[in-house]
Write a structure and sequence with these properties.
The complex is a heterodimer of chains A (436) and B (171).
Chain A lengths: L24 H6 L4 H9 L1 H11 L11 H6 L10 E6 L8 H8 L1 H15 L3 E6 L4 H17 L14 E6 L9 H8 L23 E5 H13 L1 H7 L7 E8 L5 E6 L2 E2 H8 L9 E5 L17 E2 L1 H6 L8 E6 L4 H15 L5 H21 L2 H12 L9 H15 L1 H5 L19
Parallel strand pairs in A: 1-2, 1-4, 2-3, 5-10
Antiparallel strand pairs in A: 5-6, 7-9, 8-10
Chain B lengths: L10 H13 L7 H12 L4 H11 L3 H8 L13 E6 L2 H5 L2 H12 L12 E6 L11 E3 L2 E3 L7 H15 L4
Parallel strand pairs in B: 1-2
Antiparallel strand pairs in B: 1-3, 3-4
Helix pairs in contact in B: 1-2, 2-3, 3-4
The chains are: A alpha/beta (436), B alpha+beta (171).
Amino acid sequence: MPRLVSHPDEVKLVSKRFGMGAADIDRYIELGGYESARKCLAQGPEWIIEEMKSSSLRGRGGAGFPTGLKWSFVPKQSAKPKYVLVNGDESEPGTCKDHLIFLHDPHAVIEGTIIAGLAIGARTGFIYLRGEYRYLLQIMEKAVADAYRKGFLGNGIFGSDTEFQIITQSGAGAYEVGEESALMESLEGKRGVPRIKPPFPAVVGLYGGPTVINNAETIATVPHVIAMGGAAFAAIGSPRNGGTRLFGLSGHVERPGVYELPMGYNLKKMIYEVGGGIRGGRALKAVVPGGSSTPVLLPEEIENLGMDFDQVGKAGSMLGSGGVVVIDDQTCIVEFALRTISFYQHESCGWCIPCREGTDWLKKSLTRFHAGYGVAKDIDNIQYLAENMMGRTFCPLGDAAAMPTIGFVKKFRKEFEDHLNGKRCPFAKHVELAVV
Amino acid sequence: MSSETMSLFSPQLAERFDRLVEKYPVRRSALVPMLLYAQDEIGYLSEAVIGEVAERIGITELDVRNVASYYSMLRFKPAGKYNVQVCTNISCMLRGAYEVYERFQEELNIGHKGITKDGLFSLEEVECIGACCWAPAIQVNYEFHDELTPDHVTPILETYRGRQRREGTAH
């Protein structure tokens, strides 16, 4: 069972019902649940979208697109049915926040989905969970069935004449399906390869209908935005970055865990105070701030770094999924880079050549390099290869593989050079890293 | 296909599939979960499974195979009754996942995608399973075990051996 953690600096909104038995619908209602959905039903779509816009809530999947704005792009009139699609294909390495939401607060996901549906005029919502999350899917399925029994879902929700249905769906193992258009393909029973954009999902999405796709954390945040009001939610965070975020601290920290902190929270403080510092009293070597696809940061770069989309972007990385991976001074960065690229090589769907071939060549080069058979030219070649993948694929997986690789080479060039001329890596336990 | 006609699947699963294909705006949306649920019961996607799923959805077997080959959890060969999946991705690696993986290899005497002679266990090195803050973590079939050290390996395997003994059936 995933361990829950807490720290005095936390501002608990999305996590406030964690560990309180809120998977039970009556308990959820007792704790104020479904009040936001009722309020939205009374207020109507324009009011909802205005509240969402004023909240400055930005997509928690990684891209950080303003949620209210995304919802406003869906055409009011549509010949085809509109859909809400909740992305619970959580698979960015370093990220396990949705795991806790599905486990502890499944009704918040349902309530957020209903609200999104009311906002865009959809009658059906899909909640898609990665296949590995079977026990969480069962929790979600029970929660959906309970919501139907209470009349919160169905042909006339909360005693109104508004219809809203929710369908849960299981994936079967694919990182790429976390990309929004690949997710729609998978839900249509196909291989999870991305679609070319435009048209964007808000216009042509699932089954060809206008579709809003939001990350599970974004959707679970929505009822809280409605409950406290958009402006109050925005005030918790930093400018243009409303509210809180479930940050996943993992790697070499004393107290790893999922902590809910205000947007803009200082990264150094997060590691040293919230996370209890580096395990075993070692020194910090580097930190991956937002899941494995985000470029690595050095200790001197995190001194005054506030964790929001804009500040981390300005520092040359990304806030991404909020998965903070902490790396101590006894870690080999070449090995870490190799394990990172091995993942993207494994998960590349093969649709776009720069990603399919690029990830494979990067993995081959880094494998050889880490084993001590690299030559000086390889370092530049790795960077050149990665730079030429950027922006040349249908979906961001190619960038997700290239960006961290460029970061590792640029910031740890010396460590790459130390692997040259058959020298053994001083830290690595696995000379030839086993890869999947 | 109605559940009364010849089906590979148990009556419960066949009935579930009858409902599943009607649940979505298009039948084909049932494909991915259906393959996973079929695999859970049969053990892998055999020719016969692919044939029946294709017929239930109303697409070709080639189409089913094309989709199935994309998803890493779907397999065309049997695995052990308990499939041990060790995550070695970055967060788990930093906290000793390879040591845990090596201990499983030693204890089971098999490598990546290997199956023990008695068919009870198989082993896989897998990508991130979404338990990064409780690393290193593994899944045995769908059950998570987290915050592991190599010393947890034997007790975990014993748990499943015990389950097998209680079921009292040879695999």
